[in-house]
């Protein structure tokens, strides 16, 4: 196979399996969560909670934006800063049986 063959595998370190089903895994790779078909991955990650190195077919990694599509040697994309949504500091609970018109 050539280096630019789309069926080559690209290694990703520190991958976390968030959820697993028979046909696919939901994986945390860097700052992304992606579903990956078991037919397009290789490695020792099988079920929820597993963590380690996962090999993903190059074309799938490009399709899921895990690697730079312009680079033939599959250099991983740099992590982008994501603005975190701020939630209120305190949550207020309201009973369901409470009449909301009595404020």
List keywords for this structure.
five-stranded antiparallel β-sheet, 103 residues, mainly beta
Strand order, sheet with most strands: 3-2-1-5-4
Query: pLDDT average, as an integer?
Result: 79
- Residue share in β-strands: 25-35%
The number of helical elements comes to 1
Helical proportion, percent range: under 10%
Q: From the alpha-carbon coordinates, what is the Rg to the nearest angstrom?
A: 20 Å
In short:
Helix content is 6%, strand content 33%. With 103 residues, it is mostly beta strands. It has a domain of 55 residues.
Describe the structure.
The protein has 103 residues and is mainly beta. Helices cover 6% and strands 33% of the residues. It has a domain at 9-63. It has 1 helix and 5 strands. It has a 5-stranded antiparallel sheet. A hairpin with a 3-residue loop joins β1 (9-20) and β2. The longest helix has 6 residues, at 58-63.
Write the layout of secondary structure elements.
Layout lengths: L8 E12 L3 E6 L2 E6 L3 E3 L7 E7 H6 L40
Antiparallel strand pairs: 1-2, 1-5, 2-3, 4-5
């Amino acid at each position: 196979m050539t280096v630019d063959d789309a069926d080559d595998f690209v290694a990703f370190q520190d991958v976390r399996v968030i959820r697993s089903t028979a046909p696919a895994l939901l994986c945390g790779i860097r700052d992304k969560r992606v579903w990956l078909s078991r037919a397009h991955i290789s490695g020792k990650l099988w079920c929820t909670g597993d963590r380690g190195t996962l090999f993903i077919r190059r074309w799938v990694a490009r399709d899921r934006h895990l690697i730079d599509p312009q680079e033939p040697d599959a250099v991983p994309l740099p992590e982008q800063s994501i603005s975190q949504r701020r939630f209120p500091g305190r949550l207020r609970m309201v009973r369901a049986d409470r009449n909301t018109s009595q404020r």
